């Protein structure tokens, strides 16, 4: 395009210098002007296209940054939800006010009591745990074993098995929550703990604490011999 314009300009210039017609009429000069305008329009269009391309690249960059930002926010929210699930399901250590309850076998000399009534059984611990939960306990452990929804307390001869591990008496139950409510549910007359102490002579003692640390749940120490995942 530039070469054509150069030739036409050369011809017109030669005609003017030589004072001759040189075969260049007004139509040729008009065409030359149109070519100049056309070249300018092409240049302008190229500039417009370049600007549009730059804008597209910028928008793509912004979209990528937005996607990265949204992805990061999603990951942060997901991590927050995971931490909440871990907290509420006992997979984190917790700290707070509450009570400590010590329970051990009866030392009563009452001959009217059966020997089995003087021993702390799994049902006794289970009832005490349920009473504490009903009083709003937010975290509980027994002899350092965290109690969660899938925890088991079962008799195993002279000891109890908690989360699959043997735990001997005395049993120290720690519960985090409203101190007064927790204390009352294991000391007031008519409660299960009160009866263990006053009817069966078991050692049941509760104290308040302002800074209990309850360890996280480490799992159940057991192995399935027959059950397998169906997934």
Automatic annotation (TrEMBL):
Signal peptide: 1-22
Pfam families membership: DUF881
Protein name: Uncharacterized protein YlxW (UPF0749 family)
PANTHER family in the cross-refs: UPF0749 PROTEIN RV1825, UPF0749 PROTEIN YLXX
Keywords: Signal
Keyword Signal in annotation: yes
Family that this chain belongs to: Belongs to the UPF0749 family.
């Amino acid at each position: 395009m530039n070469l054509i314009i150069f030739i036409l300009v050369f011809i017109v210039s030669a005609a003017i210098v030589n004072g001759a017609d040189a075969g260049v009429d007004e139509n040729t000069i008009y065409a030359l002007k149109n070519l100049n305008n056309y070249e300018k329009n092409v240049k302008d269009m190229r500039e417009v296209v370049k600007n549009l391309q730059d804008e597209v690249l910028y928008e793509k960059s912004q979209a990528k940054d937005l996607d990265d930002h949204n992805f990061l926010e999603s990951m942060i929210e997901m991590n927050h939800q995971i931490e909440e699930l871990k907290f509420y399901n006992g997979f984190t250590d917790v700290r707070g006010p509450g009570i400590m309850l010590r329970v051990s076998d009866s030392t009563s000399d009452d001959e009217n009591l059966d020997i089995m009534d003087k021993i702390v059984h799994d049902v006794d611990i289970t009832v005490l745990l349920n009473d504490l939960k009903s009083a709003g306990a937010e975290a509980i452990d027994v002899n350092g074993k965290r109690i969660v929804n899938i925890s088991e307390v079962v008799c195993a001869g002279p000891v109890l098995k908690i989360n699959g591990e043997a735990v001997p008496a005395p049993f120290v139950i720690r519960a985090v929550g409203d101190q007064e409510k927790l204390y009352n549910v294991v000391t007031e007359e008519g409660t299960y703990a009160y009866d263990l102490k006053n009817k069966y002579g078991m050692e049941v003692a509760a104290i308040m604490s302002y800074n209990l640390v309850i360890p996280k749940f480490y799992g159940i120490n057991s192995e399935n011999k027959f059950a397998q995942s169906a997934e």
